[in-house]
Amino acid sequence: MVENRKIIHIDMDAFYASIEQRDNPSLRGKPVIVGGRPESRGVVATCSYEARKYGIHSAMPSKTAYKRCPYAHFIRPRFEEYHKVSQKIRNIFYRYTDLVEPLSLDEAYLDVTKNKKGIKYATQIAKMIKEDILREVGLTSSAGVSYNKFLAKLASDYKKPNGLTVITPENKQEFLDKLPINKFFGVGKVTAKTLNNLGIKNGYDLRQLDISELESIFKNRGYVFYQFARGIDYREVKPHRERKSVGSETTLRNNLSIDDEEVLEILSQICEDVSHRLLYSNNLGKTITLKIKYDDFSQITRSLSLRNPIYKKEDIRTNVYELLKNVDTKNKQIRLLGVTVSNLVDSKKECTNVTIFEYINNMNNNTNLN
């Protein structure tokens, strides 16, 4: 029975920035921005909670962040360190259950219905995991506990940072009815505006619309909104998913035209993230895909396939920029950008079990592979 499941969602607090503050005590309690330098036309990858008080957020141009908080500390990302910390955290998860579904470096779902320690209450496990992470890694995390993935993720975001929220079958409807509409999964700025224009401000208002009304407005997403307004989510925690692609995307806080210089900077940051994800997963890829979603929620993709697999951010970025040249926006505004590398080469299987770093070195030293 779905309502008997015990699901935990762990989300690290300002992950990259918190690692920088942990490793450099002089940064603690100060606004920290991880990303490009403001003079280099870079973008914000993430920022500390102290910086967020100034309205700074991810994907914001660094020069804009500097204007909002000129005394903030700008730091280049250290992805290798972030990956190492992420692995330590993941190892903590596996002490309690093998049913771990990582979503990114800094968040994951855990199914602890049947856990390794035989602990009855998922809330107790969530507390123990948070304590383990703080003691062993030196970082705070937020946890959400519920009987499905949708509610667990909502709960982890409810009292950030360092929060712990439990949503039970008994209190889930009260929680959802009071929840602002923009806090629902899948409700961005444009969707929230559409719903607000219909007088829908929170979960209770959303629940008053029947499924036919929602589908007439939002097509297939209408059914999802109908279920989420009632706390319905049948998805299981899936730990063993065969990796078919590696990607990253970001929703822009402010819509941009394709000619805005920030588009290239944001794509550059995304390509760097994808590159490090490839390294972390011991993969290279031969197919590059650019994804663009517009302000009207229509979207396009452009792809190209290469003869040799790549992983370097420079190579990914070069091909993404080429794909961008073939995009006709028709005067539309961009609200989301994404990059995916697929047609993967598994270094462990196809490179005689050498590490990806050894394989890359061999590629660079073998002219037949160039």
Task: Tell me what the structure shows.
- With 370 residues, the protein is α+β, with helices and mostly antiparallel strands.
- It is 39% helix and 23% strand.
- The protein has 15 helices and twelve strands.
- Helix 10 crosses helix 11 (221-228) and helix 12 (261-280) packs across helix 13.
- The longest helix is centred in the last third of the chain and has 20 residues, at 261-280.
- 39% of the residues are buried.
How far apart are the termini? 55 Å
Tell me about the largest β-sheet: 5 strands, mixed
Strand order of the largest sheet: 5-6-1-7-8
Element-by-element helix/strand order: EHEEHHEHEEHEHEHHHHHEHEEHEHH
Strand content: 15-25%
Number of helices: 15
Structural class call reads alpha+beta
Total strands: the figure is 12
User: What is the CA-atom radius of gyration, in angstroms?
Assistant: 22 Å
Structure described in brief:
The chain has 15 helices and 12 strands.
Key traits:
370 residues; alpha+beta; 5-stranded mixed β-sheet; 4-stranded antiparallel β-sheet; 15 helices; globular; disordered C terminus
Please render the helix and strand layout as text.
Elements: E1 7-12, H1 15-23, E2 32-35, E3 44-47, H2 49-52, H3 62-68, E4 73-75, H4 79-93, E5 100-104, E6 107-111, H5 122-137, E7 141-146, H6 149-156, E8 164-166, H7 172-178, H8 189-197, H9 203-207, H10 211-218, H11 221-228, E9 245-256, H12 261-280, E10 283-294, E11 299-310, H13 313-325, E12 334-346, H14 347-350, H15 356-365
Parallel strand pairs: 2-4, 7-8
Antiparallel strand pairs: 1-6, 1-7, 2-3, 5-6, 9-12, 10-11, 10-12
